[in-house]
Write a structure and sequence with these properties.
It contains ten helices and ten strands. It has helices at about 20-25, 75-80, 105-115, 135-145, 165-170, 175-185, 205-220, 235-240, 250-265, 295-305; strands at about 30-35, 65, 90-95, 120-125, 150-160, 190-200, 220-225, 230, 270-275, 285.
Amino acid sequence: MTQFFYNSAMEKKYYYAFTDYCKQNFGRKLYRVALDAHMTCPNRDGKIDTRGCIFCDAGGSGDFAISYEGQKLTKQDLIYNHQDAEIGDYIAYFQAYTNTYATYERLKQLFTAALSDTLFAGISVATRPDCVNEETIRLFQELKQAFPNKFIWVELGLQTMHERSAVFIRRGYRLEVFDACVEKLHAIGVSVIAHVIIGLPNETEQDVLDTIHHLNVLQIDGVKLQLLHYLKGCDLGKMYLENPNAFHVLRQEEYIHIVVNCIGNLDKQIVIHRLTGDGAGELLLAPLWSKDKRRVLNMLRHALKEKNIVQGCLL
């Protein structure tokens, strides 16, 4: 059962954070280690499109990921980001591009290697729902049986439930494909984390809340809320540079307001893995305020406290 209070200091908890989930289920904090298994995406190799999603840069969301081909990793390989973590405190996060877009044999080799590594408590696989087929489902079943003491999570880039927005961002699949994938993964006991983008062009706050309500109905296991970044090198960034006035870039106060309402409308059993994203360094065109992630998170906590919004209280 979700707990919204720390028993030690009696500090009120306003949402079910990933850190709290880890402490409840594993007794400690876990750290994602981004891996790049050198796959591509059907939105890039021509199967669906060649341009990628409109907001995706050339790195496929894996710009700082460790190149991984199934080699044995050491703590020294990971110490740059997580100096205090111990062996077994890491999550092998297959992040770059679409990480089920390969043959059964290659996926089995990669995922087996990561699950066999004592560094990792489990794996999290970022992918597209249209790239999870029956062979993928069978592989996850086999891996769950082979590694009963480790977890397997799948992260799916939904971004939005609205078809008009999905077409604009060139997502390349319809909502029912996402829904069916979640159902199949849940049927074999694999937890699903959905990615949602806040600030998509022409989406209202109610549009975002509609997506949150849809995830509630699906009984999604986790969610990552991500502010839309306009980046150099991606098509959305190019469009923005050509005509900045054509886009409503969220102000910090707007983003805080929307996220607070998302939390209030999110089922309390859903783990919140992310509330914003880091400003992408020199690639970031807008919104520049997102570079100060700590300030954004502090403002979110203050707004939740001031409005007394607890996860699920607005349902």
